[in-house]
Amino acid sequence: MFAGSLKQMDLSEVLKLLTASHQTGVLNLMNPEVGSTVAMIYLQVGQLVHAQVGSSTGLDAISESCRLSEEAFAFEENVMAPQQTLSAYPTVKLLEKMSGQISEAKALRLAMPAENEVPVYLPGASLAGLDATADDLSLLILCNGTRTISDLAHDSRRTLLETAKAIAKFRKAGIIDIKAAVRQVSAPEPAKDVRAEAPAATAAEGEDKKIVRYWRGKPVYE
Questions:
Q1: Could you read off the pLDDT of 93-127 as tens digits, one per residue?
Q2: Which CATH code fits 118-179?
């Protein structure tokens, strides 16, 4: 069986091998931890004819599958597609589109900040052509250089992953800069009062004694 992991070879490269060898069947993409199938891409004599990810099919399913990067894959031969949602599109063009989307997804993952890093909005940066929702744009107001990604998630009532993805999109577009991670510095221990720990003065013992003279460097008391 033709099988492996998307960690070793990205999806577009896997499909190029299958199309070049004129395969017919289904490429299953599976969760590596539980083994459940998360996406299916069907080929017929080396042509992409159908894709399904959850309830999404066709081009939408292709786009969603391009975001996968750690799934296992396995090709099952001689399985016919239940639908023909991609047959109207040239396979060569589909593979080109997938290659571009996969590269973009990789760049986005590299731009994702850690939860203790601090994003800073760069005033004057162009927002033209940016694919972002109104909720995503509202995050920019909070990126004043004092909040970490964790703080932004809390203040905007989003998950850490949603927040990091939105900031990564802005970072990739040159709208956001990332400051160094904030380190948690523990408060210094209060200084010990040496006088408090010092033993009681011995003068009390010889309080009534009076030094008369020194003999060979030592005091002589009355």
A1: 999 999 999 998 888 888 888 999 999 988 877 77
A2: 1.10.10
